[in-house]
Amino acid sequence: MRYFCQVLLLLSIAFAAPSYAVQPDEILANPAQESRARELSRELRCMVCQNQSIDDSDAPLARDLRLLVRERITAGDSNSQVMDFLVARYGEFVLLKPRFELQTLLLWLLTPVLLLGGGVALWRSYRRRPVVETGADGTPLTLTADEEARLERVLGGEAEKQS
């Protein structure tokens, strides 16, 4: 019985329909207009929640925006006219995906420029790595006994100077 309840719970979660904040009294009678309204609502930011579309938000301002979108659609506005109206009224921030314009150029290009700069920096650091010299047989070259003794004298002399 316990496993049955767990399976039932998992199935109900898996097949649950997504919930939207759109109330029944907001839905337009014309299915084509309602579809357009839902499409536009998914592209508009809730000014209260900020990282949620007005289609998903329960905030009163999101409801007002959903009603405004539906009002503009029933008045005969096209999708771009509705979006332009809302941008003129609330600013570019109302769009979840900002338009590619001069004022949003930095927003759109900053990520690719940073990725490209990081790639160039990695490439340059890779090229600046010290190259280990190898002999004819491919083994790394080592110091001779005289070189090691000289190195020991130099390093020993520096250690004495620091003391």
Total number of beta strands: 0
* Structural class designation: mainly alpha
Q: Tell me the major beta sheet.
A: none
Tally the helices.
6
Pick out the low-confidence regions. none
User: Which band does the percent of strand residues land in?
Assistant: under 5%
Q: Specify the overall morphology.
A: elongated
How helix-rich are the residues, as a percent range?
Answer: 55-70%
Report the order of strands and helices.
HHHHHH
Q: Ends: how far apart? A: 79 Å
Mean pLDDT: 83
Rg, nearest Å: 33 Å
Secondary-structure topology with pairs:
Blueprint: H1 2-14, H2 31-43, H3 60-74, H4 79-90, H5 105-127, H6 145-162
Helix pairs in contact: 2-3
How does this structure look, described?
This protein is mainly α and 163 residues long. The protein is 58% helix and 0% strand. The protein has helices at 2-14, 31-43, 60-74, 79-90, 105-127, 145-162. Helix 2 (31-43) crosses helix 3. 11% of the residues are buried. The mean pLDDT is 83.
